[in-house]
Structure formats: structure tokens, C-alpha cells
């Protein structure tokens, strides 16, 4: 399992897709998921097993964060 970072697209072991908007040092992260339309904070315990399936480049990610109101 790869270490997740800002901009990664993840697929969890239960099939939920995430776009990591911001990762914190304690392992928690803010992400968009395919089950909710707004960003949400998740605990590292919530998503233990995942696969990194892609990455969004830095500039588009920062623009997306600004549009949806996540601090860059």
C-alpha cells in the first residue's frame, strides 16, 4: 500500500472512490468521495486499506480547492 498524498485518487477496499484534497500529519485527510457531494474529513482509521489509482496535478488541485473552499 502506497502512502497517500494530496491529489491522489484512492479506491478503498469497500469500493468507495476518494480524491484527497488535504492530508494531515496524523494520517487524517479531507477528501471528496463518490458517496457525498461535499468535502469531508476522514480519519486514517476510516480508510485502512486502499489502492492509489491516479493523481491530480498540483495546479488543477489547488484551483479545485479554491472553488470548493478547502484551505490550500
Provide an overview of this structure:
By secondary structure, this protein is α+β, with helices and mostly antiparallel strands. The chain has one domain. The protein has one helix and five strands; from the N terminus they run βββββα. Strands 4-3-2-1-5 form a five-stranded antiparallel β-sheet, with helices on one face. A hairpin with a 5-residue loop joins strand 2 and strand 3.
Give the structure's gist in a few sentences.
By secondary structure, the protein is an alpha+beta fold. It is 15% helix and 42% strand.
Question: What is the strand and helix layout of this fold?
Answer:
Elements: E1 8-12, E2 17-23, E3 29-33, E4 36-42, E5 50-55, H1 58-68
Q: What is the strand tally?
A: 5
Beta percentage is 35-45%
Radius of gyration: 11 Å
The total of helices stands at 1
Output mean pLDDT.
Answer: 89
- Give the SSE string: EEEEEH
Give the overall shape, derived from the CA principal axes: globular
Report the structural category.
alpha+beta
Helix residue percentage: 10-25%
Strand order of the largest sheet: 4-3-2-1-5
Q: Tell me the distance between the termini.
A: 26 Å
Low-pLDDT regions: none
Oligomer type = single chain
Largest sheet: 5 strands, antiparallel
Number of domains: 1
List keywords for this structure.
72 residues, 5-stranded antiparallel sheet, 1 helix, 15% helix, globular
Amino acid at each position: 500500500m502506497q502512502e497517500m498524498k494530496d491529489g491522489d485518487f484512492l479506491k478503498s477496499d469497500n469500493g468507495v472512490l476518494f480524491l484527497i484534497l488535504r492530508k494531515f500529519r496524523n494520517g487524517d485527510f479531507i477528501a471528496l468521495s463518490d458517496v457525498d457531494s461535499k468535502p469531508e474529513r476522514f480519519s486514517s482509521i476510516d480508510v485502512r486499506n486502499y489502492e492509489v489509482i491516479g493523481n491530480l496535478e498540483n495546479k488543477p488541485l489547488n484551483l479545485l480547492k479554491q472553488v470548493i473552499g478547502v484551505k490550500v
